[in-house]
Write a structure and sequence with these properties.
alpha/beta; Spore Coat Polysaccharide Biosynthesis Protein SpsA, Chain A; 20% strand; globular
Length: 239
């Protein structure tokens, strides 16, 4: 059995996926960790996401922690709520859309004694071509502005040491939070390991990413750049 771990799942309108995701994660954690918790943050869903979570919790018990926002406040806020409610040795977060294989945490934990943060990159990304192109341009933009070279900056498959995570201030409210976390870790000289992860097609539900998020993300990029001028650079070790 490995260290204790908190798994954080921000969720917004994922009623079709959330029960299967929680059950799958629970089964994996039960077999691999002596102490664990799953923290689901319902970010003001207007479907039955929270009700589905309650049903699962009734069956699985106190290791499932449910947190709920009274209205949709943004992915970054939901992630922040979950991350700083976690109290185990390791803290991991991913999406609630069932597009990742949770068992890949095992290869991440083998590196965590040496690294502050282990991050995934989607080896064969199962998204539409336009999203892949936008992501490619986005990664190049972040490299140009911040000097951060990573294969998949906004991949939501990240494992932290708890004490390392708590050295970071997380402020962004929307999807840029994934990038903010990595940039701040990089500039604070965290030891970061990057590993490939499987990416599965979305079978149920719909993505909540919208075209308008491009503009809010651009605003976040330049806001963060201005606030971090003069910061020191760290490094990322490739797989």
């Amino acid at each position: 059995m490995k260290n204790s771990i908190s798994v954080v799942l921000p969720a917004y309108n994922e009623e079709e996926n959330i029960a299967a995701v929680i059950n799958c994660i629970y089964e994996f954690l039960q077999e691999n960790f002596s102490d664990f918790e799953i923290i689901v943050v319902d970010d003001g869903s207007y479907d039955n996401t929270y009700q589905e979570c309650l049903k699962v919790k009734e069956g699985l018990g106190q290791r499932i922690k449910l947190l709920k926002h009274d209205k949709n406040r943004g992915y970054g806020v939901a992630l922040r709520t979950g991350l700083f409610s976690a109290d185990k040795d390791l803290i991991f977060y991913t999406d609630a859309d069932n597009q990742f294989d949770i068992t890949e945490i095992n290869k991440f934990t083998s590196f965590i004694p040496e690294y502050d943060l282990v991050i995934g990159f989607r080896e064969d990304r199962q998204d539409k071509l336009i999203r892949k192109l936008v992501s490619f341009v986005y990664n190049k933009l972040i490299l140009f502005i911040f000097g951060l070279k990573a294969k998949d900056i906004d991949c939501s498959f990240k494992l932290f040491k708890r004490e390392s995570l708590h050295k970071l201030s997380i402020e962004r409210d929307q999807f840029f939070v994934d990038t903010e976390v990595l940039i701040k870790a990089y500039l604070n000289n965290f030891k970061i390991k990057e590993l490939p992860v499987k990416h599965l097609p979305r079978k149920l539900g719909k993505s909540t990413v919208k075209f308008t998020h491009i503009f809010t993300t651009l605003g976040d990029i330049f806001s963060l750049h201005n606030s971090l001028k003069g910061a020191r650079h760290g490094s990322i070790k490739k797989a």
